[in-house]
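Progress narrative, Year 2. Work on Calcium-activated potassium channel subunit alpha-1 from Columba livia advanced from sequence curation to structure prediction during this period.
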Amino acid sequence: MDALIIPVTMEVPCDSRGQRMWWAFLASSMVTFFGGLFIILLWRTLKYLWTVCCHCGVKNKEAQKINGGGDTQADGACKPTDEKEENVAAEVGWMTSVKDWAGVMISAQTLTGRVLVVLVFALSIGALVIYFIDSSNPIESCQNFYKDFTLQIDMAFNVFFLLYFGLRFIAANDKLWFWLEVNSVVDFFTVPPVFVSVYLNRSWLGLRFLRALRLIQFSEILQFLNILKTSNSIKLVNLCSIFISTWLTAAGFIHLVENSGDPWENFQNNQPLTYWECVYLLMVTMSTVGYGDVYAKTTLGRLFMVFFILGGLAMFASYVPEIIELIGNRKKYGGSYSAVSGRKHIVVCGHITLESVSNFLKDFLHKDRDDVNVEIVFLHNISPNLELEALFKRHFTQVEFYQGSVLNPHDLARVKIESADACLILANKYCADPDAEDASNIMRVISIKNYHPKIRIITQMLQYHNKAHLLNIPSWNWKEGDDAICLAELKLGFIAQSCLAPGLSTMLANLFSMRSFIKIEEDTWQKYYLEGVANEMYTEYLSSAFVGLSFPAVCELVFAKLKLLMIAIEYKSEKRESSILINPGNHVKIQEGTLGFFIASDAKEVKRAFFYCKACHDDITDPKRIKKCGCKRLFPVEDEQPSTLSPKKKQRNGGMRNSPNSSPKLMRHDPLLIPGNEQIDNMDANVKKYDSTGMFHWCPAKDIEKVILTRSEAAMTVLSGHVVVCIFGDVKSALIGLRNLVMPLRASNFHYHELKHIVFVGSLEYLRREWETLHNFPKVSILPGTPLSRADLRAVNINLCDMCVILSANQNNIDDASLQDKECILASLNIKSMQFDDSIGVLQANSQGFTPPGMDRSSPDNSPVHGLLRQPSITTGANIPIITELVNDSNVQFLDQDDDDDPDTELYLTQPFACGTAFAVSVLDSLMSATYFNDNILTLIRTLVTGGATPELEALIAEENALRGGYSTPQTLANRDRCRVAQLALYDGPFADLGDGGCYGDLFCKALKTYNMLCFGIYRLRDAHLSTPSQCTKRYVITNPPYEFELVPTDLIFCLMQFDHNAGQSRASLSHSSHSSYSSSKKSSSVHSIPSTANRPNRTKTRDSREKQNATRMNRMGQAEKKWFTDEPDNAYPRNIQIKPMSTHMANQINQYKSTSSLIPPIREVEDEC
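Result:
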């Protein structure tokens, strides 16, 4: 009996015999469990018997009714039954309400229920912690409830568990299953022993370890708190909680039996083991390691270990690998972004690859942008590969990557999209289905805008017609900075501008791309080209010293003194409407707070325009010394536009927005700019010659059959000064949107006879699909064939064209990147290898110039002919001006066989790109960064390259997918008065004296003062720096040369020229007679505009008569004198031209001067009466 004795102390009054009372604790739990189980079973049995009896009574009553029993008895018997049913219904209603109340209290669907559930779980963990503390004491000991603090806390916890057990019992639908639940069993063996402990002043650890089973509910608690949301995380927590709870519970049982011993052995075989030693024993047992340092000695312990090792091993073998797999498969980039105070962040999503990310980061984080205090967060649903991961690590201070999708609101919350400064969506420029790619990006925009409507979004779009879908998004707001960069629109716009001014695409692409300055000592063409490449486009507010001055005066002062080139301003009209004016005239005066657009090498240089003070800096010759002075400013720029002082800041509401609701005023409506009354009178308001916005030349829709030329018809038509578009495509090819190529060439700031004829050479099936968007443009012809056919190329007189454009719609259908451009490269090499008769040729397009408007053309010295540069005729295809579109940048090495470009050389450093003969869509990636830092830059670029496409026109095209003709009104005619890019020749004309060794700065000032022309670059022969004469006709681009830059006679000057109102008032220079064939071939590109009424024929001439005359003209092709009609909308000008098809005399005339428009339009093209 000594083994039954427990320690007795004077402080703890206990049984004087010291006998163990563990059975009392265990009995309380067993009696509670089995007693309750017996009561539930007894209640169910009685309820079942009562139901059976009632069922039998109902059957007897039905039998009595069938047998015709007494009605009185039946009625008397029914009354008490009805009363009982009413009482039962009332009782059931009361019970149901209490049950529902209890269910709400313990349900996690309400706040009270969630709080109660979480509180019960927390108290269960607290009770388990108390057990861990008490496990260091003997299994059974005498303790005073009033002095034992842990016992008091445990008592309070168990009272709460008892109340919660009652709520659960009331809310349970099936009381039997509730009684057998794990949580109920835990309460049976943990709650009653506590009350016994208080009564006996004893403490028995017993089965309190069962509280560890509450850990199984850990995942449910986390779901109630909205912490666990994904299936993988829920599964992982479930597995871990089951494993740990089973482990701790089994360790508690081993701790109990090993420290107590076997009852049948009078507890003599016990061994002292701590709880944590038992935990260790269970782990080595589950893992089948079994070191043997700790083992069970009691029979109960060993018997338990036999069964536990079976279940534990199975659980260990299945749970642990699955847990490891879930942890291993857990997203490495699945965290959440933590915003840094005082630092903005942007979210970049869409097409995330090594190429797209490296190009984006290279431009976004360029050192010329000052300090970019913006963190870049990339979000993509595919984890990055090793190369991309290494790129992120190199920029870890400013770049973070998270795996997820913008279509998932949870992932948007992870990257804090609601606090992001902007969201940028990159497109896959090389996808096989551009419409599907655009649809994906539009869905991304919808998802982001649905989550946070105020977020600013800049997205790339591949197809122009898909931009309209963005307008359907209610929260899409151009005013707040939302922008869509259409790659097809800008790419073809750049190429179209190169048709008007060769090399312009290269210059503009370099301006909005951040390039570091590369210094070259030797005197090579690369030296001057790279000096220009270092220039970028910036914006800055003009100093108050410029207020009141005209734009040309400020331009001259800024260029000469500050060494900056200003090309445009943000102008606010009297109605406070902001608009961007590119090289406006003398009538525009600088206002307070005017924002200027500059071309400079870095942002610090542009600050001079803001700091300039006439009082302090007027006598300073070194522009680097122009710093901020202490003079008081006339206007507080900081108060008006605090976010736009830096050129890299965004212009949200202060600047012009490219939106239908807030359209950019790309044209000016001031009364000074509207054509005079005499000109307006000359316009026939009933003739539709322009689209409804007045921005583009327009004609009624033509059937494609009327513009198709056969090879023989094209050969008979002497085309010259035209644009040949070689297009590769078929029925299955994706449309590239040729309208974006034609629109800039049909801008209304060109006079009609200035428009270059466009001839498409390619598959007729493909061009039929594109024709719906082209049928409203004049001077367009189609030659069905292939650009690889030399016969087709000779038929369209490719040696006489101003530019040959090579495009392909099949580029993205090839997996091999090196073969994507094979068609374009083959066509380019095919043309360059062609040979032509020495007697047939004209001046090259890249040697073409114009005469500045306003010159006295009657003077022999100022003849328009003097503005042209005479060059030898084209005898080889290598001298034909060509621009080739490439998809893969590395393929540029195959275009020129005589260059030494390394295959790894960046595109902008290669000779074809520097010369403007190659263009790749990848250069447009820089626009994403440029638009984010200043969205006015995108508006300026679009204005320059699209010919003046307005948001109103975009909305119209989105609605009708075609241009709508409009009547000529003073308002629409005023829209023609806008600048355009041209090239000025220095060989002859008013600037010939500066062409031979003159300074570029002197030319800049003279052109600006005399003709309001703003020069901004040079197109120079590649070998002009060599002392020996060279036959190479290749030219390269020099952007924004310095003031003292020396000019050579062969230079062509890029300039922004004003619209010439007077160029078209007389047709004298365009009239031709049979005895003046020489003058008919020396038309100047500056002699344009609308004809006077004196030269117009009678408008009563019918279409039949014109068709008859055209038929007669076709029948007389061999005669010397021809009378023909242009396809100008007013069909007005019968001319006489000496036509001797391909004769030596005619070829010699063409060889002298390059005409800007076709000498003879396509024979079959006759414009309908408007």
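The first strand starts at residue 140 and ends at 142. Residues 22-66 form the longest helix (45 residues).
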